[in-house]
């Protein structure tokens, strides 16, 4: 499944990219290309994340999860790579912006607020996308083992359950009370745990950079 087909199956993401890119392009300011690209990334995330979280937490019943999972499974590796690449690039761009501001002996409050908002939204993007990936892998194996064992529930898990598991891995780099029972799922959890460690370290480094900008 190519990227365009996958985006068509995710109208919230496609709409967020279109609106976020247009807002960044039309933003009335004399900005560098890096700043404008970073602004487009932020606008896209600030539109996409509330929409997808509302879908996952407000309208994400088990039947809806199974239906969506079968449609999105084929393109998940590409979408995860795009999410990871975008988050890494945004962290690098924020570091560049802060270093430029410090070199000019100027780190205005809007720049620092912008940096904090970018870090928070970029960090949240990954567990959201991994939550969608866990749901797709869980329901994509047919009669094979689902790979995640949720305790205490008789019915099929919904998106809230997968998001709970994903955010736990993102915040702690380890699994929660949910059991992992298949090789494919263990590999996906391993990838997220390694990324979570790297990104949490990056968040700490950027936080120190922001504090240094405030002090200077």
Automatic annotation (TrEMBL):
The family database entries (InterPro entries) matched by this protein are listed as: DUF1345 (IPR009781)
The residue ranges crossing the membrane are 38-57, 78-96, 112-137, 193-215
> According to the lineage, what is the superkingdom?
Bacteria
Signal peptide positions are none
Keywords on record: Membrane, Transmembrane, Transmembrane helix
Query: Keyword Transmembrane: yes or no?
Result: yes
Q: Which Pfam families match?
A: DUF1345 (PF07077)
Q: Mind telling me what this protein is named?
A: DUF1345 domain-containing protein
């Amino acid at each position: 499944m190519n990227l365009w087909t996958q985006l068509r199956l995710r109208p919230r993401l496609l709409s967020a990219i279109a609106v976020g890119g247009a807002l960044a392009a039309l933003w009335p300011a004399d900005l560098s290309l890096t700043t404008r690209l970073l602004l487009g990334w932020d606008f896209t995330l600030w539109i996409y994340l509330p929409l997808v979280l509302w879908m996952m937490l407000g309208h994400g019943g088990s039947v809806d999860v199974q239906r969506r999972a079968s449609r999105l499974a084929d393109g998940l590796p590409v979408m995860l790579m795009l999410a990871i690449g975008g988050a890494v690039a945004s962290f690098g761009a924020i570091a560049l912006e802060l270093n430029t501001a410090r070199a000019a002996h100027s780190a205005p409050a809007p720049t620092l607020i912008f940096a904090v908002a970018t870090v928070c939204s970029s960090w949240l993007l990954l567990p959201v996308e991994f939550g969608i990936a866990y749901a797709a892998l869980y329901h994509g194996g047919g009669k094979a083992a689902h790979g995640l064992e949720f305790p205490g529930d008789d019915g099929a898990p919904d998106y809230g359950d997968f998001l709970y598991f994903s955010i736990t891995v993102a915040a702690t780099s380890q699994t929660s009370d949910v059991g992992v029972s298949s090789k494919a799922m263990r590999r996906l959890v391993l990838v997220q745990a390694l990324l979570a460690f790297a990104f949490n370290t990056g968040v700490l480094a950027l936080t120190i950079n922001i504090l240094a900008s405030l002090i200077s």
